[in-house]
Structures are given as structure tokens and as C-alpha cells.
Amino acid sequence: MELDFNENTEDDGHDETEGSDIASSTAEDNLSTPNKHEGKPEEIINQSDTSNTVDTPLFNESKGQENESSSDHMEESAAAATPPTASPQLQTPRTRDVSGRALDFDAIKSSSDLSDVLWHPTDLSVRPVMPSRKFDKGSDAIPSLPFHAFPPSDFVKLPKDKLDVLYNRIVIILNGNVNGEKENVIRYLEILGTNAEAANVLTNGPIMLVIVKMLRQSKALALRVKLSSLIGLLIRHSTSIGDDLANSGILGALTDGLRDRQEKVRRFSMAAMGELLFYISTLNDAARDNNPQESPSKDSRPSSSWQVPNSLISLISSVLRKGEDDLTQLYALRTIENISSHGGYWATRFTSQDVISNLCYIFRAPGKQESMRLTAGSCLVRLVRFSPPSIQQVIEKLPLKDITSSVFKGNQREQQICLNLLNMAMLGSHLLTNAGRHLLPLMEDKNLVSNLISLIEQGSEVLRGKALLFVALLCKNGKRCLSQFFCNARLLSTVDRLAKEKDKYVQHCLEAFVLSVVSTLPGLLESITGDIQQLLGGRRHGQISGLNSRNSPKNSIHFFPVVLHLLGSSSFKHSVVTPQVLQLVANLLKLTESPFQGRDDFQITLLQVWNQSRRSQQQSVITPSSSSAKFFLA
């Protein structure tokens, strides 16, 4: 199995400040490293993950994107070209939708099933857990060592005999008692580890086994911090890890580090563990790719030599509880975020009530840095995506109305997270206990319609697409939303303009949006037919108020203008006119031959609908027999 973040190692310096706390720890223990930056944890978190961070899509993981500049937008990352890696790394495609489909927009056919187009590649993006190392200008020079230290470009070309000699010299120093030499060797290994080929050599050779052994046996704080950091760095940049490391006790050593009293040890143990677990989680994908006859839905326990006990999953989950160091929590969140991208077995291991509850708390905790909050929100989206019943617990902790308010107030990443949660709640409304209690406050929000239209008008491509799907889901869950949205000329004109957009995701969302809304019309027309029949039969007394009246009675008749407005939209009119809809309209024409209170207003709109329908489809299999239609068409 080969793992490739497609990282440009020249850019490593942009996110290195997460590791800056090593400096202070080494200073305390007389193992100072003068080329490390110092920084407060809150500054480290802010610098490591800005508010508009660019997540790296699972299929196109770019070190350039890892810089997470606040000027970038997450939704642009899928379309942006990714520069080739600076170091020759072995590529292994690892993107799979949970159903086994590749995330390929061209392969998506028109469908009214909104779940087919709900997800954008950035929804399953992954980011390195382990921070890179940031050095002061000029400090990336190879330190002084009692042997010839080859630069990375030469190290990867060394023949086995020379490599063995170098290994022996390194091991002797690591096992020795001279702190200065030991520190310089670790520094040298860090420099080598940022090169993918060199990282592969070191990770799969005797050096890593020695480092793991030292981590298990060392009592010195500074050394444990450095060793756990080095392990994480090597695993992060490795594209292939052999089975020998699985038997080295590395999982146990990092687990002990997670239980350490010193927060610096816990931080880097968590980061290194996150990188390792993410690699292990990819092994199942590789096995399925190499065995295509096996059902994609079969997600059994991993068959590799790596065995991850439930106690370790519980330990990582416990890091999310209140009181843990923020950086350690951030690395745990990124671990869960990356691993849950695979769905199946690995996602279910973290889908517990305790984890969901803690993620909800962090996502809305006012005292947490934005980076942590948004990563927690991203974890929620992924876990619920692969375990739909979990949405019940999420909305118990995060009311839909509160999530909706964040759609219109947060930054783009938060908006995308919240739209995903809302869409999953609407799609899974049948799974909710007392769904009306959760949905009613949302649908009664007076600003919902105008705010959603503004988002569809002005949002990014990803947000526009997801907002369209949210509108469609609202309409499928409540007829009242049909009139609120589609008797609004502003929305229809915006939708017609979107039809000219070139973005594939927007187009697929728009197609699904149109088909989904149109699919509600037969049921609406049948309901209107039933209401009129009840009026004609005298079972429902009282008149039909004007179709534009705010005091319309609680029946479906006053929703009928929706059909007329849809027929006036270039995006909808051809989809609206189907034989089934025409037949239902013809039936209504026949019903209006008999008088009932409010018939005149209804009949005017009905004849306009029929006229518009005939214009949109000149040749129809339906020939209405009602005198009203014949008179109108004469």
C-alpha cells in the first residue's frame, strides 16, 4: 500500500508553527533546538488552520493546498489544478465513494434522488495530522555530525552497503549518551524525513525500529517529544510502510505517549498516531481495489497485520472530552476527520454517542478556536453521512434553526458544513423521532426564503449547489415551502441564470433540484383534486379564499399558482409538462365545470396553466373533453 499526499516539500514551512512548542520543551530539558519557532497554542491553532482553510480532496491531495491560506476557498480546491510533487512519490489513488463509486460528476445521471448529487469532493477532503517542521531561515542546513551526512537527494541513491554503514553510525549515536550528537542526528533525520523517498527508506529500515524502541524506554521529556514528533514526521511523508513496523510495538509506544502526563508528549503522540491510523485505514481500500470481485459494501475488519484495538479507539475518543489540551484535541479531530472519510468499518468505530456529543460541543463551543470548531463540524458531517441514524443525536444537540443561522453568518467552510448537516437532516427526516418538532421552527423562520435565495445568488459554486438541494428538500417535506419559494420571481430568475453556469457540480445540483421539485407536482395536483371533490361533495364548507390571500384555508388549493410560476421558468417548464401532469390538469378542468365557492379565481389560474402547458408541449396525448378547455383553446 502506498500513500501519497502529493506534497511539495518546499512549502512545508507554511504550516510548521504547529510544532513550535517543541522548542520550549527542549529548552527546559537542555536539549534546545535554536531553529524552532516558539508560539502559544492558540496562535499555533490559528496559524495551522485559518477560517477559510483549503481542504485537500482525497483524490488530489496537494501540499500546496495544505498551506491553508485564508485567501483560498475550500470549494475551489476540487477544480484547481494541483502542481506535481517536488519529490518523486509513488501515486496511489485512494478516492472512493462509500458505495464504491468514484466521485465523478460526468458519471452522475439526471436523478430526482438528491442523495446522488449531495456530496462534493471537498466533503471528503483530508489533511495531514502531523504538523510539518518549520525552521528559521538558513537553519535547514545539515547539522554537524561525526560522519558524512548525505543530503536527501543523495541519501535515496545510496547503495545498500553504504546505507548499512550509515545506519550503524546513526544507531550508535542514538543509543549513546552524548545529547548534542543525539540531538543533531534527530535533526538530520527530520531533514531526510521531509523527502518522500527518504522517508520510505527510513520508515521501513532499522532506524525506525530503533526510534520506536527509544520512545518506549526513554524517560526524558524532551527526548520523548522529539522522538514522537520524528515518528509522526516520517509516517506523514512515507508512501509505503512495511509489515515489520506493525510488529515493532509502535502502536503501544504511541498509546503510552497519549497517556503521558506531559501535554507536549500527548500532542505529538496524537499527531503521529493520527498519521499512522490514517495509513492503516487506507489498507482496506487497497485490498478491495486489488480484489474487485469482492463486494464494495463488504467492510469487514482489516486483514492486514496492523491490529487496532477498541481500547485505542476509545482512548482517542476520550481526548475530545472537556479539559484536554487544545492542540491534542485538534490532532485527534483531524485523525477522526481523515479516517471517517473512508466510511464503512473505520467510520463506525468512531460513531458513538460519546464522540457525537463531544463533537457537537466543540463545534459550538464559544471558547474554542475556529479551526477546532470547523474540524469538529467536518467530523460530524462524515460520521453522520456514513451512519444516517446519528443525525437524531446531532440535531438534539444542535437545533436545525441554529445550524441554519450559521449558514448565513459563518465563513464558507462553516456554511458548507451546516448545509451538509441540514441536507442530511432533511433526507433522514423519516429517521427522526417527532420530526415535526425539529422541522417546524426551521420552516417558520421568516428570513429563511430570502436568505437562501441570497446564498443561491451570491454564494460559491459549492454553496449554490447545496443550497438548491436544501430548497428542494424543504419543498419535499412541506407543501407550504412550494409557494414560499416558487411564487417568488427572484428565485426563479436566479435559477434560470444558474442554468448558464459552467460548473459541473452546480449543473448536477440544478438538474436534481428541478427534477425533485417537479416530482412533487403530481401529488400536489392530486391533493388539489381531492380538496375540490370534497367541496363539491359538501364535506368541506367554506369558500376558497383568493389565491393570493394570506388567510387561505388549510388545503392544497391555494398552492396551485406554484404550477403556473414553474411553467413560466425556462428551467422548469419542459420538465413540468408530462403526460401525468397534463392528465391531472385536464381532470381539474373537468371538475371546474361544476360550481363551488372560489371557483372563478381558481379557474382563471387553471386555464393559464393549461395554456402554458400546451405552449410548452404542442403535441400532447391528452385531449381534454371539458367544455372549459375547449372554449379556452378555441
UniProtKB/TrEMBL annotation:
<keyword id="KW-0418">Kinase</keyword>
<protein>
    <submittedName>
        <fullName>Serine/threonine-protein kinase RUNKEL</fullName>
    </submittedName>
</protein>
<dbReference type="Pfam" id="PF23606">
    <property type="entry name" value="HEAT_ULK4"/>
</dbReference>
<dbReference type="GO" id="GO:0016301">
    <property type="term" value="F:kinase activity"/>
</dbReference>
<dbReference type="InterPro" id="IPR056981">
    <property type="entry name" value="HEAT_ULK4_RUNKEL"/>
</dbReference>
<dbReference type="GO" id="GO:0008017">
    <property type="term" value="F:microtubule binding"/>
</dbReference>
<dbReference type="InterPro" id="IPR016024">
    <property type="entry name" value="ARM-type_fold"/>
</dbReference>
<keyword id="KW-0808">Transferase</keyword>
<feature type="compositionally biased region" description="Basic and acidic residues">
    <location>
        <begin position="63"/>
        <end position="76"/>
    </location>
</feature>
<feature type="domain" description="Serine/threonine-protein kinase ULK4/RUNKEL HEAT repeats">
    <location>
        <begin position="524"/>
        <end position="626"/>
    </location>
</feature>
<dbReference type="InterPro" id="IPR011989">
    <property type="entry name" value="ARM-like"/>
</dbReference>
<dbReference type="GO" id="GO:0000914">
    <property type="term" value="P:phragmoplast assembly"/>
</dbReference>
<feature type="compositionally biased region" description="Acidic residues">
    <location>
        <begin position="1"/>
        <end position="19"/>
    </location>
</feature>
<dbReference type="InterPro" id="IPR044591">
    <property type="entry name" value="RUK"/>
</dbReference>
<feature type="compositionally biased region" description="Low complexity">
    <location>
        <begin position="77"/>
        <end position="88"/>
    </location>
</feature>
<feature type="compositionally biased region" description="Polar residues">
    <location>
        <begin position="45"/>
        <end position="55"/>
    </location>
</feature>
<feature type="region of interest" description="Disordered">
    <location>
        <begin position="1"/>
        <end position="97"/>
    </location>
</feature>
<feature type="compositionally biased region" description="Polar residues">
    <location>
        <begin position="22"/>
        <end position="34"/>
    </location>
</feature>
